[in-house]
Amino acid sequence: RFSPSLRNGLEENYCRNPDRDERGPWCYTTDPAVRHQSCGIKKCEDTVCVLCNGEDYRGLVDHTESGQECQRWDQQHPHKHPYHPHKYPEKDLDDNYCRNPDSSVGPWCYTMNPAREREYCHLHKCTTEAEKRLSDTTTSCFKHKGEGYRGKVNVTVSGIPCQRWDAQTPHQHHFRPEAYECKDLRENYCRNPDGSEAPWCFTSLPSMRVTFCFQIKRCTDDVEVEDPDCYHGNGKLYRGKIRKTRKGITCQKWSARSPHVPQISPDMFPTLHLEENYCRNPDNDSHGPWCYTMDPSTQFDYCAIKPCGGCPHPPRAYR
């Protein structure tokens, strides 16, 4: 019934599924008594399990749980969306594979059905033991972005009590503890379930939705130079991609106006390579590259970059 063509992939004697058999790829056999047989190839969703909520899933499943074909991430039809692969390189938005770029309950995709914007994908969760081995938890300080922080700080940096995660007032949200079991959304403790810059919480004030818990200390062994690059002189010509300060705080984008209104921006100085939130030295600071920070209480800080073959001068305390 099926003959090879340039498009149907019926090469050699490889297992294929030209008639969309529910059992998967098959082939005609060389046994005269057995006309055809399934090849027993595992489904993609059965070969890789999903840890936690699947933010790190990089498998090849490209259909939703209801069987809808996924839309390619680099296309805007039939559904327009903000998740352009070049804007989110760390999310690995390849082809039309299921991914979780927005910290949803699990991997999902936009569908090729104009009437159905997006759906979750059918993937198996890993065992609790596997998730425990993966986690790097701390209680008295936080590492990296604080996804593993499990301490009991439950107020904002200004002392405002946090809203309980299992409550929907004063702020409604989708971070329900039962849907994010591995994120430990207990009580009203500061947590980082969505990969933000640091642990945070919804606040108990109706006028303030969320805020970071920057009063939690960063673990001292976590602040280190992230790149073998160094800078020459005062770093005026540094064009690397370090984007954290010496205290481990993530840099604010130069084009952003929150949490700090910058005095130096790409619009004002288009030739200074103020790209993304990379460390730069646009004002010839003698102490090296710096950036505005994502910490509302720290306007700017110098970056975790070593000078080439020398020690930096002691930093200024203000900008």
Characterize the structure shown.
With 319 residues, the protein is mostly loops. Helices cover 3% and strands 9% of the residues. It is built from two helices and ten strands, in the order ββαββαββββββ. The chain has helices at residues 44-47, 128-134; strands at 26-28, 36-38, 108-110, 118-120, 200-202, 210-212, 230-231, 290-292, 300-302, 306-307. A two-stranded antiparallel sheet has the order 1-2. Strands 3-4 form a two-stranded antiparallel ribbon. Strands 5-6 form a two-stranded antiparallel sheet. A hairpin with a 7-residue loop joins strand 5 and strand 6 (210-212). The longest helix is centred in the middle third of the chain and has 7 residues, at 128-134. Mean pLDDT is 85; it is low at 129-134, 222-227 and 310-319.
According to DSSP, the number of beta strands is: 10
**Low-confidence runs of at least 5 consecutive residues:** 129-134, 222-227, 310-319
Overall radius of gyration:
25 Å
Main sheet characteristics: 2 strands, antiparallel
How much helix is in the residues?
under 10%
The computed structural class is: little secondary structure
**SS summary, helix count:** 2
Mean pLDDT over the residues? 85
The global form is globular
Strand order of the largest sheet: 1-2
